[in-house]
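From the shared-data thread, chain only:
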Amino acid sequence: MRVIGVIPARYQSSRFPGKPLADICGKPMIWWVYQQCKKVRDFEQVYVATDDVRIMDTCALLGMEAILTSKEHRTGTDRVGEVARKISADLYVNIQGDEPLLEPETIRAAIIPFYSEDSLQVTNLMTKIEDPVDVVNFTVPKVITNRDNIGVYLTRAAAPYPKGAIGFNYFKQVCVYGFRPDALRFYCDYGIEYGKAKAEAVEDIEILRFIENGYRVRYVEVESDSVAVDTQNDLEKVRRLVEMKYGNEEKNLDKMERKKNQGGGVFL
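Structure, as tokens:
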């Protein structure tokens, strides 16, 4: 199965213009996402799909494959659809360009079900909400599934409402999607003919287009500490986390190198 990873990256954003190029410890955010995707062994290739020459130039400078797409796309999935018209594959995986801490094994979780379910058309990821603030945070889409983990609805509201008890686990969306070519083609053709679907337009959650039109979207539960960058505060949080994770790794490598140069030896 030929699997392609696509990272949609739009420069203009109402909440955070230029977000893909935001600096995180000396590298643009899109670079961090790309590096995580390159670690996914299932991907034959990874592309950044962008509408902006500044992002294209940055990708070229840093050795990242990129494809220039139309500025008219309403959603990131439409941008992935344009890539699919140019590059043939059996499966396209949409990885959001604003989650630089997304783990490679988390990305793989959206791919694995396709190896055993021939009829499966769409996957998406979800993770248990640990911070109660996220339940009422409108920037965090909440996922509601049936007992087979097929998507019923996604919402920015605190739902489902715990009328009888509070012992309910809430799940939030992790924005990694897997699409068969036919499902991706449906999504793009629908957008051209009708625009966004009804609930999709209200909630501004693009996966709802599939659910509203009868597609079985399989949700895969993952354990993920990823942080989506929607605001400047999110960016500062991610900068601290990246510095803690990779800064400590660099310090340990420096320490081992100094010890080796001093003749102390290194045991791994």
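DSSP finds ten helices and eleven strands in the chain.
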